[in-house]
Structures are given as C-alpha cells and as structure tokens.
Amino acid sequence: MSFEPLLAIGREEIADYVNSLFLVYIILIFIRVLLSWIPRMPFNPTLRTVVNFIHQVTDPYLNVFRRFLPPLGGRGMALDLSPIIAVIVLLVAQGIVVGLIDPG
Q1: N or C terminus: fewer CB in 10 A for the chain?
Q2: Is 72 helix (H, G, I), strand (E, B) or coil?
Q3: Alpha-helical regions (H) of 1-104
Q4: Cβ partners under 8 Å of residue 23, min gap 6
Q5: CA angle, corner 91, sides to 57 and 52, nearest 5?
Q6: pLDDT tens for residues 24-52?
Q7: pTM
Q8: Closest C-alpha among 86, 84, 42, 46 to residue 63
C-alpha cells in the first residue's frame, strides 16, 4: 500500500483563488447593475431567491460608495455611479492583494 504525498498549495494557487474571488464579486456587481435596468420582473420563487442573494451580497459594498456618491438626476431616472467606482476600487485592490500574494 503506497501513499501519495500530499501536494502543498503554493502561493500561485492561492493567488489564483483570490483572483477568482475578486472576479466572481465583480461579476455579481455587473449582474446587480443589469437587474436594476429591469423595472418589474415576473414573480418566480427561484428567480426571486437568486435576485435577493445578489442584492444581499453586493448592497453592503455598494452602499459604502452610495454614501459619498449619491445618484445623479431624479424623477425615476437617477444614474447610480457607485457600481463604477466600486468596480474600479475592486480592480485596484485585486491587483494589490494578488500582487502581494504572488509577486512573481
């Protein structure tokens, strides 16, 4: 009976994993933006669960930027620029964090 040695997880694999987490969160923000363009979605329990999940995951982060950058315009046609700033900050943080984990 032979045992395979356990493979060590290297810095590169951890950097790839963290990079993937940032990417998933950025995609969730883009989905959140697309959902905001749909005024009334038909009621479907599964769809409602997915939409609620996306709101619960992204709203706390986006609300940080909404405090400093309120929507522009008014009367139902307000333009929310907070997702743009939020994604830019995420991309900068991604570059810094992944660069610190795997500098080479």
Answers
A1: N
A2: strand
A3: 11-36, 45-68, 82-101
A4: 94
A5: 15
A6: 999 999 999 998 888 777 788 888 899 99
A7: 0.83
A8: 86
